[in-house]
Amino acid sequence: MTEVTRAEYCVIACAEAWRDAGEVLASPMGLIPSVGARLARLTFSPDLLLTDGEALLVTPDGTVEGWLPYRQHLALVTGGRRHVMMGASQIDRYGNQNISCIGDWERPKRQLLGVRGAPVNTLNNPTSYWIPRHSRRVFVEKVDMVCGVGHDHAAGARYHRIPRVVSDLGVFDFDTPDRSMRLASLHPGVTLEQVREATSFALAVPDEVPRTRPPTAEELRLIREVLDPGNTRAREVGA
Question: From which residue to which does any coiled coil extend (predicted)?
């Protein structure tokens, strides 16, 4: 068996966001989160619901297994029964996310996607993040605009939760007294110094930082032979 790639560690880290989730709708955005959600369904989260992004529930191979009308989708969204994994153009120490613009909102330096559904996603159901290129431009001291709501803006939100942030360098959570970002694990081959250098704010760091767990032999087979035999995951994360 060939060596496990960085992309495959990222797939595992994303899949773990849905471990033992029960009958919750997974909404992964991006290639590696999508492979991760399907892997979770095939292994440790068999009750996970997967959608085609429109109106159907599907199996990991795309077979239709049910209808998901929009009104039911909204009920899952607003009732805490969906777990989204979004991207972020910027994210700060409290988990505030920006996908709208860079610079001042009235005269932005760069226009991005727009706020879209980020406030509803983050206030009403668990939201994790996938960031394929960890850098100081993304992990910023303060986001230019709050789209996804972080812990310092979420008072009173019943279902607000940010289980994890996964990047190409490691996994991060908010298991700290002030709900600021903490380094939860480092991917193999990555050093703490690399993560600190690529982050614009001071991370909480435990005394002993674990390594992101490797895939089991069966998980690796599923990733390589069933879920992504074309190795498209390498387009998001290189060696």
Answer: none
